[in-house]
């Protein structure tokens, strides 16, 4: 065996190690996702009553089903990828040598790689859109905030799609420049924009939660148990923070360029983070749907309770002012 073949075998081993690690994470998280979808659908069906029941059920199931359709190809394709790689690289032997076997494997893996390109950005686009919807319904009377959210949505959509287009062109070998010149920069841009979306929405919701609780304290209800709306707001904030933390790691790995095929702890962690981020993008909307559908009026309560609290506070101040005026007049 020549030194070149020994080096090629080491590269194949490292690539296989990464693929197996990534697939194990994907398989485990896919099982968690399917279980979560089943729980969410059952809770949605049991909690919805009234005229809007069927429409809300179908809407929720359709959105969750869309996420499932994006998660499932990742599961199936990764299974096929491992089988094809093992067959072409290790089982079938060619007279031309190991390099020819690797080339045959890459040709068979081309279509599978194309399929694996799209689920992650589409899941992130949908997940980020739901995150922006959370902030959108809480800032109904602020056109500046809504305009910012709309710009973030458009920017996120464009960068995610452009990133995958350049990845597709890189795999097809149609780029004139060095492939990494485009893929690394667009990978980084898409990661940063998606992070900006989630940081912004989490901050906007956090401010509303703080404002909402302060108004409860103004009404003398600060020592009472948290309402359902406050609990949900806190859950949303915590979920957003966790998702943002994963995205910060993702951005860091993009900055450090972890596309090397060598087996290092750093590269293995990068592979795991990508799969966890992909799964979190699908699990995050499920948590939102579960909480929204457990209490049908929750969104309305979050949106309008602030106004009702302010109105009640104003009435109390007016009553106090009227009472003071009466005392002064009688004095």
TrEMBL record:
It comes from the Eukaryota. The chain crosses the membrane at residues 20-44, 56-76, 115-136, 148-166, 186-207, 233-253, 265-292. Keywords: Membrane, Transmembrane, Transmembrane helix. This is Uncharacterized protein. It comes from Collybiopsis luxurians FD-317 M1.
